[in-house]
């Protein structure tokens, strides 16, 4: 008799997949891509993905039996396996790391999983099987249960299938960071009671209401709205159209003239507006789209370099239309923050229900929903609009990939592994599907522009804004000079104040950009110079006035603001530097009659965090919006005429070889928020260094000059895109251990890579959460084989961890470090 085995990928960072034995009957049923629950180690249970089915008994260990098959059909596709393999080898991580990043938490239950009752949904217990009921009941008394507890309650070992059933019934959810609790979105509708559907009855009613003209108006309006369209009428539409209030509607409901009802709208859906045709492109856009299509004839990747507000999005829309007409799926990648209702409803206007949205603030259940729709090639997920991790969805027949704002560094995942770049991964994904990728940006990354110059990518340029609005006028204000001449009020120069006053007088809005949050990043004693530091990290604590706290931006440590110096006891404490909180405060003092809001990490927590701020600004309930780089990402505000950059210098002085490129991108992007519709916008940049090349290039909107100059540096100093980089970080809480380990590691690397090894070096913040960090950088010339390079690094890494003293040191490999 033949023995049957499966290779299973487990969601943990181990190098190899694991082999388990299965029965003959199981072997006929199991297919790659299905989930199985399996024992691992002494006590653990994991959900794994079947990668292969075979008859080869493992030589080193006895294959254990699986516990259970969890799926009837595969949930992971063949192409996903290809992508996972690529990611794991390219980014030097375990395939299990990729699996964990790809699958929604609810898909990979294990013995450590914690579940809770879903409070949002009333479950009919009659629908529950006996064992399901036992668990559901236990959750009435306990807020959460571990898988082990469930095992005890039902007195069974293999409970994952049971948990899975409860998840599918939405009786429970997997415990995770919960943002706003999901509430089914109920829309209130009204209709006339049936008895008034008859003409005569309605006539009588209207006569009766002649003494209540407001109520009569509501009924008349409802009647005419209903006559115009068969669609249900939301209460809000009715009150607007009849110019009445919901109180009057309520009276009519109480009098049993109107009837109200609720409809639960689909969970992962925003507005249910009517679909409209896409816009007619202008001439420049027409030319651009023709060039893109021509370029796609012999290029797989095209860069659309179009200035801010040139109408790139409308071009994407046309290309998406073509792709879905051919029955294909489309992936549209965006930085997290740009994924707000602004763009979502813009696309839903064109494509209605065919748009599915996917981002990290979604709950596991919502992600499962999108996953299943993409997997089943549902018409509800023709177009996936998503942030980084949406490249990992189970696409079927992908026909186009769009990466908008391709220069955004948030496309690169920092931690944990896989430390992948979503743009580059999306290109690989498109290749697997033999389809095309369009990268779009007003300020392309040097990497991408270099590839275009090398003719590895096609290049299409759009140099004018839509409607021929001029690019905003940029004014550089020398604040050193302004300080000297006493022309500053707080952190505002007279020029900025003048421009603000004028803009507000014209009824326009203002964006103020400051690259730091909090009130002040350093508190310093005027007597002895001491400044409070984080106990676990090597950074000074930022003062947050709103909570009267000192906070560490690296580890989250916080304490009450000190009243006197911890060192000498002096009460003379000074603020050094300033953050968004302080700007907000100063603005409200300077312009007390105008509304100010702030958008930064502190004000945008929660699922709808950004949405709320963005929509109040869009609705012009706020005149001045103060914020960090969040403001720069592809937002389209129609009434903003002025952008103020409070201080450009701390961007430019950041210790990183990409600092200048990034400053250019950030400043140009934030400037691009000004004057997007008709009148020319204005940008005021305050700086101590108005002659800085980057600022000059920003003010003349000269991307090419920036590109050439930065590329010279990259050539000279052997940095990307000329060389590739792999960064190795060693971490441990013992300073000496990190030092000795890093020296050993670097020395071994130098034997192979000679001068192309830099470091080891402590980064500017060398201790975070009590762990010392030390970095080694490997520069890889384009002619050197990447595969061989990685193989050597892995070999050195495994000798490193075989040294007993070094084993506790964490080693992090970061390929294409951004
Ligand atoms: P980008 O993506 O390049 O920043 P957008 O696509 O957001 O630019 O376009 C800027 C503005 O111009 C948007 O408000 C958009 O609706 C409008 N717009 C762009 N193209 C057209 C068009 N062909 N017809 C009408 N309006 C357009
Ligand atoms: Zn002091
Ligand atoms: Zn800290």
TrEMBL record:
Cofactor(s) named in the record: Zn(2+)
Keywords per UniProt: ATP-binding, DNA replication, DNA-binding, Helicase, Hydrolase, Isomerase, Metal-binding, Nucleotide-binding, Primosome, Zinc
Sequence positions that bind Zn(2+) 1: 525, 528, 565, 568
GO cellular component: primosome complex
Binding site for Zn(2+) 2: 534, 537, 552, 555
Note accompanying the cofactor annotation: Binds 2 zinc ions per subunit.
InterPro entries named among the record's database cross-references: DEAD/DEAH_box_helicase_dom, Helicase_ATP-bd, Helicase_C-like, P-loop_NTPase, PriA, PriA_3primeBD, PriA_3primeBD_sf, PriA_C
Keyword ATP-binding: yes
Domain Helicase ATP-binding: 293-462
GO molecular function: 3'-5' DNA helicase activity; ATP binding; ATP hydrolysis activity; DNA binding; zinc ion binding
EC supergroup of this enzyme: isomerase
Annotated Helicase C-terminal domain residues: 549-715
The enzyme's E.C. designation: 5.6.2.4
Biological process according to GO: DNA recombination; DNA replication initiation; DNA replication, synthesis of primer; double-strand break repair
Keyword S-adenosyl-L-methionine attributed: no
Functional summary from the UniProt entry: Initiates the restart of stalled replication forks, which reloads the replicative helicase on sites other than the origin of replication. Recognizes and binds to abandoned replication forks and remodels them to uncover a helicase loading site. Promotes assembly of the primosome at these replication forks.
Listed PANTHER family: PRIMOSOMAL PROTEIN N
Family in the record: Belongs to the helicase family. PriA subfamily.
Self-association and partners: Component of the replication restart primosome.
Protein name: Replication restart protein PriA
Source species: Bizionia argentinensis JUB59
């Amino acid at each position: 008799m033949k023995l049957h085995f499966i290779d299973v990928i487990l969601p943990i960072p181990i190098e190899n997949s694991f082999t388990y034995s299965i029965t003959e009957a199981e072997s006929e049923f199991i297919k790659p891509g299905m989930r199985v629950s399996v024992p691992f180690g002494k006590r653990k249970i994991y959900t794994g993905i079947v990668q292969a089915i075979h008859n080869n008994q493992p030589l080193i260990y006895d294959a254990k039996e699986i516990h259970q098959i969890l799926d009837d059909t595969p949930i992971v596709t063949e192409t996903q396996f290809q992508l996972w393999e690529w990611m794991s080898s390219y980014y030097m991580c375990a395939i299990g790391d990729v699996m964990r990043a790809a699958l929604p938490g609810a898909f990979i239950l294990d013995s450590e999983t914690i579940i809770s009752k879903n409070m949002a949904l009333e479950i009919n217990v009659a629908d529950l099987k006996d064992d399901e009921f036992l668990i559901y009941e236990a959750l009435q008394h306990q807020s959460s249960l571990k898988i082990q507890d469930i095992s005890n309650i039902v007195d069974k070992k293999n409970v994952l299938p049971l948990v899975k059933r409860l998840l599918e019934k939405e009786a429970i959810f997997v415990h995770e960071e919960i943002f706003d609790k999901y509430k089914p979105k109920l829309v209130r509708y009204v209709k006339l009671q049936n008895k008034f559907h008859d003409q005569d009855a309605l006539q009588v009613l209207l006569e009766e209401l002649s003494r209540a003209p407001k109520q009569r108006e509501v009924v008349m309006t409802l009647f005419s709205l209903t006559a115009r369209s068969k669609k249900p009428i939301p209460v809000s539409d009715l009150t607007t159209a009849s110019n009445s209030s919901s109180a009057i509607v309520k009276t009519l409901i109480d009098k049993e003239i109107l009837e109200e009802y609720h409809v639960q709208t689909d969970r992962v859906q925003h507005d249910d507006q009517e679909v409209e045709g896409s816009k007619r492109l202008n001439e420049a856009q027409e030319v651009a789209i023709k060039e893109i299509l021509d370029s796609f004839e012999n290029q797989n990747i095209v860069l659309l370099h179009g200035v801010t507000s040139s109408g790139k999005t409308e071009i994407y829309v046309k290309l998406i239309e073509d792709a879905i007409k051919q029955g294909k799926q489309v992936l549209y990648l965006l930085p997290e923050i740009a994924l707000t209702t602004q763009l979502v409803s813009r696309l839903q206007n064109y494509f209605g229900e065919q748009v599915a949205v996917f981002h990290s603030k979604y709950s596991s259940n919502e992600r499962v929903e999108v996953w299943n729709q993409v997997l089943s090639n549902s018409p509800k997920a023709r177009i996936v609009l998503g942030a980084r991790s949406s490249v990992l969805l189970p696409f079927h027949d992908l026909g186009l990939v769009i990466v908008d704002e391709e220069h955004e560094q948030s496309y690169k995942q920092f931690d944990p592994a896989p430390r992948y770049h979503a743009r580059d991964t999306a290109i690989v994904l498109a290749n697997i599907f033999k389809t095309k990728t369009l990268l779009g940006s007003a300020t392309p990354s040097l990497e991408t522009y270099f590839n275009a110059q090398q003719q590895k990518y096609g290049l299409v340029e759009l140099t004018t804004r839509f409607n021929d609005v001029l690019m905003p006028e940029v004014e550089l204000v020398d604040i050193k000079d302004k300080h000297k001449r006493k022309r500053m009020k707080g952190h505002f120069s007279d020029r900025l104040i003048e421009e603000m006053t004028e803009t507000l007088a014209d009824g326009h809005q203002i964006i103020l950009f400051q690259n730091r949050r909090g009130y002040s990043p350093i508190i310093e004693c005027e007597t002895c110079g001491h400044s409070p530091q984080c106990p676990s990290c090597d950074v000074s604590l930022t003062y947050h006035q709103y909570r009267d706290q000192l906070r560490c931006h690296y580890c989250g440590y916080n304490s009450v603001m000190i009243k006197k110096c911890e060192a000498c006891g002096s009460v003379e404490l000074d603020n050094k530097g300033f953050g968004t909180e302080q700007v907000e405060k100063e603005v409200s003092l300077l312009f007390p009659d105008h509304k100010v809001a702030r958008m930064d990490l502190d004000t945008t927590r929660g699922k709808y965090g950004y949405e709320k701020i963005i929509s109040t600004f869009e609705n012009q309930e706020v005149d001045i919006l103060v914020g960090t780089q969040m403001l720069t990402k592809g937002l389209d505000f129609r009434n903003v005429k002025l952008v103020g950059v409070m201080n450009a210098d701390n961007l430019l002085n950041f210790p990183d070889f990409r600092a200048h490129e990034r400053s250019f991108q950030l400043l140009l992007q934030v400037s691009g928020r000004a004057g997007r519709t008709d009148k020319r916008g204005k940008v005021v940049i305050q700086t101590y260094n108005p002659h800085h090349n980057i600022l000059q290039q920003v003010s003349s909107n000269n991307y090419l000059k920036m590109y050439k100059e930065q590329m010279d540096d990259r050539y000279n100093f052997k940095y990307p895109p000329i060389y590739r980089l792999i960064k190795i970080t060693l971490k441990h809480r013992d300073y000496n251990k990190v030092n000795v380990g890093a020296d050993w590691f670097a020395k071994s690397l130098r034997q192979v890579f000679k001068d192309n090894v830099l470091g080891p070096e402590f980064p500017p913040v060398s201790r975070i959460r009590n762990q010392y960090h030390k970095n080694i950088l490997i520069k890889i010339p384009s002619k050197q084989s990447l595969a061989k390079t990685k193989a050597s690094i892995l070999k050195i890494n495994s000798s490193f961890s075989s040294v007993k003293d070094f084993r506790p040191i964490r080693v992090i490999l970061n390929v294409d470090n951004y």
